[in-house]
Amino acid sequence: MISRSGETSRKRSQPSKARRLKQKTHSNSGYRGKKSAPGKKPISPSERKVIIFNKPYDTLSQFTDDSGRKTLADFIPEKGVYAAGRLDRDSEGLMILTNDGILQAKLTQPKSKSQKTYWVQVEGAPTEDDLDKLRKGVELKDGMTLPAKVELMPEPDVWERNPPVRFRAAIPTTWLSITIIEGRNRQVRRMTANIGFPTLRLIRHAIGGQAIGSLKPGEWKEIKM
Known about the structure:
225 residues, disordered N terminus, nine-stranded mixed β-sheet, alpha+beta, two-stranded antiparallel ribbon, 5 helices
C-alpha cells in the first residue's frame, strides 16, 4: 500500500503538463528536420547553380561507378550539383545539373509538363501513319504513353559518334524530332521499336526550353536559369 507521502513525491517527480507539451513540440520539430528532403528548400538566385552538359555516348549519368565506367565526374569537377533526370548510357546530349532541388523536380516530374526534345535516328522509313501512332500514344509494358510531338527532320549537323552507329546498307535511316513530357526508362527507344523502327542513335537536344547549343561532347558550362 502506497502512502500519501509517496504519491506526492511521485507526482512532483513528473514534469508538468506544460513542460511535457514543450518537450514534445521540441522533439517533433527536430524529427521533422531530420526527415526533410535534402535540397528541396527554396534557394536564392545567388546561391543557385545550374550547369548544362553534353553527355557523350558510353557515359553514365551519375558521378560514381564501382565498375570503373565513365561517369559525370570524368568531365564535371563541380561539387554539390545533381542531375535533373537521367540519360541512358548509350544516349547522348543535353543534361542539366543543379544544386536547386525545386528546379530539379520541376524539370523531371511529369506533372510539371517540362518538355524534352530528342533527335532520333531510326532504322527504316516511317510514314506519317506510323508517326501518328506516337502522336496519339502507344501501349508499352508499363502503360500507354502520353501523346508526343513527332516530326520528320533532316539529318542534323552534329558531332560524329564514337564508336560510329552500325548501319545495314540495304535499309535506309530516318531522323525524327520527338518531344515528350514523361521520363520512363528508355521510353523513346521503346516507342520507336513499338511502331517497328528501332532507334539507332538518340540525342537529347533540349529540356524545358534550354537547348544544347554549341556544346561538344564532354563540354559543360554554367548558365542562369
